[in-house]
Amino acid sequence: MRRLIPLVVSAVVGAAQAPPQQPVFRTGTDVIRLDVTVLGKNRRPVHGLKDADFTVYEDGKPQRIVGVAEIDGESNDPAPSAWMRHTPRDVASNDLADQTGDGRVFAIVMDDWNIPFDSADLITGARDIGHYVVDQMRPSDTAAVVFPQQAARSEEFTSDRGKLSAAIDKFQPERVQFITPTPYGTSNGGGDMPYRYSSALARSTCERMQPTIPALHTVIARMASIPDRRKTVVLISVGPPVPLDPTARNLPECPDKLRSIMLDAFGIAERANINMYSVDPGGAFGYANYLNNPFLAARRGGSSPQEERAPRAGSALVRHEFLRLAGEFTGARGIYEGDIWEGVDAMLEEADTYYLVGYQTPTRPDGKFHKVEVKVNRPGVTTRTKSGYYAAREDSLGRPEQRLTPTANDLGMAGIGSPASLPLRAIAQAVGIDRRTAAVDVAVTVSVRLPAPLRDMG
Known about the structure:
Layout: E1 31-39, E2 54-58, E3 61-62, E4 64-72, H1 73-76, H2 82-86, E5 91-93, H3 96-99, E6 105-110, H4 120-135, E7 142-146, E8 155-158, H5 161-169, E9 186-190, E10 193-198, H6 205-209, H7 212-223, E11 231-236, H8 253-271, E12 274-279, H9 286-291, H10 294-300, H11 312-329, E13 334-335, H12 340-350, E14 353-360, E15 369-376, E16 382-384, E17 388-390, H13 408-413, E18 424-434, E19 439-448, H14 452-457
Parallel strand pairs: 6-7, 6-11, 11-12, 12-13
Antiparallel strand pairs: 1-14, 1-16, 2-3, 2-15, 4-14, 5-18, 7-8, 9-10, 15-17, 18-19
């Protein structure tokens, strides 16, 4: 039997010819990193777990764990000193993921819509909780202060405690007597102003009746752009009167829309590993006592969109139900019973101690969402991590989570800056001082931080 052997002949034409292209073989292993909280029966973090204690499932199938590291924020953070507590960093960035560094990330939402404008106790308690969270920040931590109603008072993400504390000091809810319907389309103006209003620049009438809900959605979506990190939303509120039960039927149009917005925010938080803690500054009975105070009721007179028209006892219960479910949906909890300060301390500890679990995934870059579940072989413990991740796509340089970033208009209505299209970093450094005049020469360096795929192409 004859065997035919293919023969390839290359002919040289002319004096110059490109050398034959060498074959290129590409291979690699994708490792997914999970941020996992492990809590015991008393909701205290569990320490000392090893690789063998964890099992990771992706799309229902167990995966190979390649590494487990326990993260203790306090031990990894620089030792605090006086200048670190009161002096902001000399490095600034317009990219949120780069700006947050290696520390914890907090968004403190001061609910200036649902906390009553005429309750000195609740207002003072809200300020105290906000200041306490800021005071517990370490040099590597970053936080923002967000006002749902008075967005101009919000403070963008920063590590400058002075700015954060100054924003919290501005917390003073104002009574809104009425809300006019949001007009649709544009109206004819006069003179050189043919259009005086566009509905695209404002929330709907329903959302303006409860601005805390769209503000929370915007904050959570903004924080979702920070990958592989521990992120915490602290809602300081008596609770919005919005039902969150996904199985509830026949809700009025506006409550149903608000519930839909909030459930979508919970889905983003779950995928991006964002914990949402809700803290009632009045505790278990603070808001109920406010509603039943006849002196305050007589002094208020009339009603406003901020005041619940439901029965008083039912109003307080619905609000606390929101706080409870918001915590459960995001793996956190509502803090409104027992000692509030013990609950806040536990919240900060849970945000400080967790595990980084890396596992090898067989998933190819298909751009789809893949469900993830983590189990620990210890009795009586609970675990909390993101519910899954979006796989990358071969034709995309960006992360799929970046599509969750809210629009510049939504960010503006919450008082938060827009994401940067070109990430920059600025470093300020003193290079000289004139002792006679006390003048200081400062050098400022601005650099561009390219995404990793672009750097590799360079």
